[in-house]
Design a protein that fits this description.
Layout lengths: L1 E3 L2 H13 L4 E6 L5 H13 L2 E6 L19 H11 L3 E3 L3 H4 L19 H4 L3 H16 L3 E5 L3 H13 L5 E5 L19 H22 L5 H13 L4 E10 L14 E9 L2 E9 L3
Parallel strand pairs: 1-4, 2-3, 2-5, 3-4, 5-6
Antiparallel strand pairs: 7-8, 8-9
Helix pairs in contact: 6-7, 8-9
């Protein structure tokens, strides 16, 4: 496996792979890799000839009071995991390498899809995501790009960008990877104290209960949201940002009764750590 830091180096690797007729899989990450990222890299390795993993803590998707400086940076360990999972190249650029013109050019998906859920309290977040991912798509020229379902709104936004800008690639969305006790894998889990981590298990429990109720025939939107909300509120350490349901694809508004495919998404703080999780409610 090769570690590269510059656009020139990455383009050389991509050109060589393309010259050999190899298919390219891209796994964009912000580093601090865990088993969830590992599952994406492994899937990319199985479905492509050449795998590129980006490791870049993207400053443009962090708000003024968010955790950019504290975000874990573990490049050596990240490279080790990427290599073990089958990556051929790790691209770890500097902010100046990715933003050479002082952020003068942006790629932005507008409309309600970026204004609901996390977009409501993180107004610049998705502009930063779509801008950096479009740069990575242009540099890596992947046949397939791999993302996790845990970041469900990000997935929907990026799908819209790919469709609207005619990126010639396939979006591959992989299932949420969880700890044995149900907590969704996340780089931010390392911020949790032992007590907060235990408290955070209410997220997966509440989603599991909602899915069970839906599978048993419950279709009332307000009742499902209320039941999840009350379960989370019963945990004293929780501070709810949102518990909401939107139709997918597209994060469209839902009616009083759920039909089709729907995303039940939540964001909850435990201490200073904000966690997200979700489940799709749809007919079997």
């Amino acid at each position: 496996m090769k570690l590269v830091h510059t656009v020139v180096e990455l383009r050389e690797e991509v050109a060589q792979a393309k010259a050999k007729g190899l298919t390219i899989g891209l796994v964009p990450t912000m580093g601090a890799l865990h088993e969830g990222h590992g599952s994406l890299i492994k899937a990319a390795n199985m479905e492509n000839d050449f795998v590129i993993v980006s490791v870049f803590v993207n400053p443009t998707q962090f708000g003024p009071n968010e955790d950019l400086d504290a975000y874990p940076r573990t490049l050596e360990a990240d490279c080790k995991m990427a290599e073990e999972m089958g990556a051929n190249v790790v691209f770890a650029p500097s902010p100046k390498e990715m933003y050479p013109s002082e952020d003068d050019t942006w790629v932005e998906v507008t409309g309600d899809i970026t204004k609901v859920l996390c977009g409501r309290t993180r107004p610049i977040h998705f502009r930063g995501v779509t801008t950096v991912v479009s740069k990575l798509f242009n540099l890596a020229q992947p046949d397939r790009a791999y993302f996790g379902q845990k970041d469900a709104q990000q997935v929907e936004v990026l799908k819209r960008m790919v469709k609207d800008l005619f990126f010639p690639l396939q979006m591959r969305i992989m299932p949420i990877i969880r700890e044995k006790d149900g907590l969704a894998k996340s780089s931010r889990n390392t911020y949790l104290s032992a007590e907060e981590r235990t408290a955070a298990l209410v997220l997966s429990r509440s989603l599991k209960a909602a899915k069970a109720a839906y599978d048993a025939g419950e279709r009332n939107t307000a009742k499902i949201i209320n039941d999840v909300t009350e379960m989370i509120k019963a945990e004293p350490m929780s501070n709810i940002d949102y518990v909401e349901i939107y139709a997918v694809p597209g994060l469209l508004p839902v009616g009083e009764t759920l039909t089709g495919s729907n995303l039940l998404a939540l964001a909850v703080k435990f201490g200073t750590t904000r966690l997200i999780d979700n489940v799709v409610l749809e007919e079997k």
